[in-house]
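Hello,

Our lab assistant flagged a job as stuck in the queue for most of the afternoon. It eventually completed. Since we weren't sure the result was trustworthy after the delay, we are filing this so someone can double-check. Below is the sequence as submitted and the structure that was eventually returned. Let us know if re-running is recommended.
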Amino acid sequence: MSPDVLKLFFRLAIFILLSSSFMVLVVPKNSAEFVVSVLSLVVGTLLMILVILVNIFGKK
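-- returned structure --
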């Protein structure tokens, strides 16, 4: 995979992680927005892990 595409997905993962982390801290815990924020935090984390793994194993 192209390094530029990996950088794009990594930046997207960072954006998702930062924005969802902020939202988890701000929204009330018994709301639907909290659930969406936690799920987007999980998606951002999985995306970052996937990008790192593709970067590591793609070089071989």
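-- support follow-up --
The delay was a queue issue, not a problem with the job. The result is valid. The chain has one domain: 3-58. The chain has a mean pLDDT of 93.
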